[in-house]
Design brief:
Blueprint: H1 14-36, H2 38-50, H3 57-73
Helix pairs in contact: 1-2, 1-3, 2-3
């Protein structure tokens, strides 16, 4: 297996893309839940900050939702033939 270069597109089988989407959706739900529950709000802020964003968990949730949209609306891979 060779890692792709930054300028190369990543090509995933549909099943892998669907699984990644499920994980991202679970992350978005968890962030939303943590932000809404006072005993976990500080942890949600720390997670957002550790991801290199502002301390607003909604900023991280926005990035997760953008990743989901990218999976949902990306073009299908073209055949190399």
């Amino acid at each position: 297996m060779t890692l792709r270069q930054p300028h190369q597109d990543a090509i995933l089988p549909a099943a892998d893309a669907a699984r990644i989407r499920q994980v991202l959706a679970a992350c978005a739900q968890l962030l939303s839940w943590a932000e809404a529950n006072p005993q976990f709000a500080a942890a949600a802020r720390d997670i957002a900050q550790a991801a290199g964003l502002s301390r607003a968990p909604s900023a991280l949730a926005g990035e997760v939702n953008l990743a989901i949209d990218t999976l949902d609306f990306c073009d299908a891979a073209r055949s190399a033939r």
